[in-house]
Amino acid sequence: MSVSLREVAARAQVSVGTVSNVLNRPEVVSALTLERVQKTIKDLGFVPNAFARHLRAGFSRTLGLIVPDVANPFFTEVARGVEDAASKRGYAVFLCNSDESVKKEEKYINVLIQQQVRGILITPSNRDPAHLEALLDRGIAVTLLDRETKSRTQCSVSVDDIRGGEIAIEYLVTLGHRDIAWVCGPESIPQVADRGTGVTNVAKLASISIKTIRVTLMNAVQGEHAVTEILSLPKLPTAIFCANDIVALGVMRGLLDRGIRIPEQMSLIGYDDIAFATSAAIPLTSIAQPAYQLGVASAELIISECEKGEAHAHQQIKFQPKLVIRASTQKPA
Amino acid sequence: MSVSLREVAARAQVSVGTVSNVLNRPEVVSALTLERVQKTIKDLGFVPNAFARHLRAGFSRTLGLIVPDVANPFFTEVARGVEDAASKRGYAVFLCNSDESVKKEEKYINVLIQQQVRGILITPSNRDPAHLEALLDRGIAVTLLDRETKSRTQCSVSVDDIRGGEIAIEYLVTLGHRDIAWVCGPESIPQVADRGTGVTNVAKLASISIKTIRVTLMNAVQGEHAVTEILSLPKLPTAIFCANDIVALGVMRGLLDRGIRIPEQMSLIGYDDIAFATSAAIPLTSIAQPAYQLGVASAELIISECEKGEAHAHQQIKFQPKLVIRASTQKPA
DNA sequence: GGTTAAAATTGAATCGATTCATTCTACATA
DNA sequence: TATGTAGAATGAATCGATTCAATTTTAACC
Lengths: 333, 333
What we know:
Two copies of one chain form a homodimer.
Chain A: H1 5-12, H2 16-24, H3 31-44, H4 50-57, E1 62-67, H5 73-88, E2 92-97, H6 102-114, E3 119-122, H7 133-137, E4 141-145, E5 155-159, H8 161-175, E6 180-184, H9 190-205, E7 210-214, H10 220-231, E8 239-242, H11 245-257, E9 267-272, E10 285-288, H12 291-308, E11 316-319, E12 322-324
Parallel strand pairs in A: 1-2, 1-3, 3-4, 4-5, 5-11, 6-7, 6-8, 8-9, 9-10
Antiparallel strand pairs in A: 10-12
Helix pairs in contact in A: 1-2, 1-3, 5-12, 8-9, 10-11
The structure holds a DNA duplex.
């Protein structure tokens, strides 16, 4: 079936130890032997068995990445960043999709433990990720992704979601809006909660009141449904801020279907600034997050933790969101 | 660090063989012992080391999935299908992104060999995936994804891209269009080539000539660039068919920027029917492919191949594409 | 040629779960 | 009491790469 190091050794007339040295410490092998063994490796098409290697070493060069929804372009970008950075350092990545379900998340964590991953990058589904601490005892590093932690036993890479919420509402207020609806997902999602906090902060300062519409899932269909609720509000808002772009695109569709003009009759802001925001019916104003950077930073952080061990200092990296103005917002009528 | 089976055995006062039996053949263990050992496993938080297990077994329960672009929602959907199906059967999946580069693809194949994956699902970047045959000698099953194969040593799951190209042009011709532009990617991408064949087939039948615009990468920016080329055509087409939705969205933006109205002045069809096609500036008519199904089918196929071994009969599954009509197409002016 | 230090090579032990031939137990039957 | 048998439990050998103490080879010098 597959060629083992032992066979290479036999064929090249050297010991297994030497072949191992050729692979891992070529500098201690004589030039002649090195060349001969390398040729044999090539001839036989030998690829070392990562299982055996890591079984002995006690750890692997694989990472796990658990995100709530790969179908969301924001997380796809994050995943690309993680992958690129990991692959550059010789790490392979298991990508898992928790679908915002705590149960699925736990299942995947177990799978990843079995696979002996060296570290797990996770955007946890529940607010209090205490169960993650247990991983550390297993020697598995954990870095929170798109989520801040107060715990000093983990790294985290996040974007300032409170500030993001603030920026959005500040911008709308500056435009002159005073009746604003905030379409958000479950309070249990920390990103949503934080953006909501930002919304409230600014609302207080500007002494306006903001209507909260809560959807159960952050997808386009739910966004479309939210429109009905918005339109039945006692006082019609002049602007809508959505917890992410996907929901915003749903809301947009709902509004346009009912003949409501954007931005003339209703301004609309999303969150994430996914690539498709530009191609939307009305190019969508949004709060941009450095998704790819988020992925890269988190992968580098966790790999550094894996390799430096004790010498590693846990870090909390926080990126800043940015307002990207497009056609879906303007002054209220 | 991590608890080994040996420690469980010691603590439960049984032999390692018995613990192993508890895990893999509980029916041969007496009820009393079974319970005691299971309790110990729980107490100690023991999770079997997949490396050691698979090293001995000679194979793993992991699959590799190599796609040209995870950022493309079509492939994201495929990946979800693969993941769901694999996870249901207890398999973990490495997701790799080849970026349409043969070099990256080869690099990932090597990584996957090292990780001892049981099978690889791949949408190959080059047309003649001869190098994949070599994987079979390693005992790694290979299933082509979104790509047909004539080779009877592999399974394949694909969508009839020729038919897809035909459907699109047939529809445009039926509407009355006779001047059509076909915006496609590199000829080296088989899906593109096949769709092109479909385009040509129908063009011949209807005796119309179709202008081919080739972009180097299948992304929105390239689509936008293609518009310049289209508009400089000696005879302006009345309809454009794009090789995928992402490119189509780019073309749409390019057209709208220049004040060309869709569909009044120009009809536009995409391919893939990604979720965002609905939310586009002009909801996009597209050729739908059962992406999720594609993923599920391919994962089930390869797992069946892995587990049945010789008894497995290689299959070529082919799905049919479907026309989804939205607002971006109508009769020519 | 002899001595010694440095360089190169060797190969048995190891990682942890599985396998399977062997041993042990319990219990029914002669 | 002796015998047979099914059921349960055992533990050494195994998978393949790595490690490292021990050994062999090479080079350098007097």
